[in-house]
Amino acid sequence: MLSVATTSQIKKLETEWISSCDAHWGQVLMELAGQQAAKIAYSLWLNKPEKVAVICGSGNNGGDGLVVARYLSLRKVPVSVSFVTAKADKSEHQMTSKEANVNKTIAKNLGIEMKLIEKASALDLKGVTLVIDALLGTGLDRQVDGLYKEVIERINELRLAKELIVLAIDVPSGVNTDTGQIMGAAIKADATGTFGYLKCGLLCHPAAELCGDLSLVDIGLPPLGERYPEIYLSTSDYIFSLIPERKANSNKGTYGTLLTIAGSTGMVGAAFLSSRSSLRSGAGLVLLGTAKSVLEHLPPGEVIYKPLPETDAQTIDEKAVTEVLELTKTASAVVIGPGLTTNPQTVKFVRQFLEQSMSKKDILPCLIDADALNSLAQFTEIMDNKPKPFVLTPHPKELSRLTGQTTAEIQADRIGSALNAAKKFGCIVVLKGAHSVVASYDGRVFVNPTGNASMAKAGAGDVLSGIIGGFLAQKLQPFVAAVVGTYLHGLAGEIASEELGMASVLANDISMNISGALDRINNKEASTFEETIFEWTI
């Protein structure tokens, strides 16, 4: 796993690190950052060895850019520096930190061409093939406007015309490094070299799409240590360490029994996809409790079917609670929700089941998905913030119903929204979507790197619920089961798309490739996203 830092965490760490070393240590960190970024820049320049333009703001990000310009110049790369400033007095441009001003003086003494940009149209990029974006760094908390916005838009226009390659220093200028939102305007980069630690915003859309190839640049920062929230990016080697071992002397009981409560007439596929995916994830036995009319539509196979009392609409009836609670006595975990519908009687069933499950001394681990989440949204008062072994797997609209936030508000801060919901309900929350977020009520968060657009299909969420449920049955802790299951689900989707293409993957294809995903994890093969995060070390 890789540590991920919030803006405040990285600033606090750098400040304390500089303070504990020496007042000049900030100069050293800027030097290391610029030197490493220059290596990335040089590797990109070799593809089109013409002019390089470093576009600098007035802050430390601009200082990093000046170091990059210096190292490129020393390698005989034709490079120029353009300063963009919002200050009224431009007669003698000054950087805002002593470290950045020192690097400006050095660059000037080396004879590197420097100019001040007073309007975007004056940004001359003729003959330039590589632009270094060193305008705005981390911590941006206001909308980009004026000259900065105009310069960003001009660079993007030229890049779109395929005249430029753009390398962003630390972050693409104009993105919020905590939420990933665009603050008025933002650079679209072909590559980004981020310093010290991954930033939350670079793993959240839309900023994740603006980074291009994301590189992690080591500048010698110490460990983040204890912090809140504690955020990580899942990696294949870490997931490998969590997957239950398959022992030679074992049987189906060794790997647990999962009770899945799912399905209704017309929604049979959801129940089947979820149940079958649990078995493919390693669960020893899966019981599927479903409306009795559904049974005739289910294929024979390894899943054991349990008919339940049904409504006139052939959904699970409120009267099924007694039978389902009896079934839980032999189960090690429960999945509830896929294909249930929100028939009023079914909603009452969900409420009674959850209330009675939570009233027990030893609460059975339970994953709540799909229509069980939509039912829960009607009576969230039953969920206090006391920790419980429940996993909620909402997409943004379902989380909106649970919390009262709009989907736009949720998407504007996915990590914060998932974490707040986890604390509110005392559960694990898996906020589905590109780079799904797994959040715990205790402040731990994992961002999932696997998956792609091929998985934007009906039924994909049912497969995810089955996979996580399978690991719950194998007695992984709910947070661990959610982290492992989310990673495995995305990786299975990636494998399916390799064979079928991005448009043609079906939910069943994801389920069928769980075994291939497990093989890759066991072989410690990195996911597609992990492979792009090449680490430049000092």
Could you please describe the fold and organization of this structure?
The chain is α/β, with parallel strands linked by helices and 538 residues long. It is built from 18 helices and 20 strands. It has helices spanning 7-21, 25-45, 60-74, 98-109, 146-160, 236-242, 268-280, 321-327, 344-358, 370-376, 396-403, 407-412, 414-425, 460-473, 478-500, 507-512, 514-522, 528-532, and strands spanning 2-5, 51-56, 79-84, 113-117, 128-134, 165-169, 191-195, 198-199, 213-217, 230-233, 257-261, 285-291, 304-308, 333-336, 366-368, 390-392, 428-431, 437-440, 444-447, 535-536. The strands form 2 sheets. The protein has a 12-stranded mixed beta sheet with strand order 8-1-10-19-18-17-16-15-14-11-12-13, with helices on both faces. Helix 2 (25-45) packs across helix 3, helix 10 (370-376) runs parallel beside helix 11 (396-403) and helix 15 crosses helix 17 (514-522). The mean pLDDT is 93.
